[in-house]
Amino acid sequence: MSARTVPWISPEEHLAYERTADVRHEYVGGQRFPKAEETRWHNAVVGNCVLVIQPAARSRGYATYALTVALQVEAVNAFYYPDIVVAHRPDNGDLYVVHQPLLIVEVLSGATEAIDRREKRVNYQKISGLHEYVLVSQDERRIEVYRRTASSWICEIVSEGEVTLESVGATVALDEVYA
After folding, report:
1. At 72, which CATH number?
2. Which helix H or strand E contains 171, and what residues bound it?
3. How many structural domains does the chain have?
4. Domain annotation covers residue 30
């Protein structure tokens, strides 16, 4: 059996490649990983979340991006494509990458749930300005909000009614998310 060497790619090379790539890739520690394809249901749940989050974020002067804008996590040399990211406007003038988000939302799927729960949660929580990380199940009515406190992170799990996203001042009804 022969060993295969995977070349290290610089962040700059990765970003240049992404500008012309047909498929988006997440980047962690010098390696590229193809982003999982989304189903129509996944896309619908993301869209429903944006419809609720965006007006609240905009009223506070924040920008909301969905699916195709990269998020840099400098602490771990990574670029991810969150389903939804809310950031101050303007972030830093970069048209393709968000650097300091307030809120990140990931809609869970079979292909991404383990990464979203472990790797991304741990890495996202290293972003100093991040206030909330939200996991939205696409297979059941369940939203988990990881919220930064003064000394740690707490998790709120909601399966009925509404959930409040403090970072943008939005109240999200599960009926709207899963419409």
Report:
1. 3.90.1570.10
2. strand 170-173
3. 1
4. no
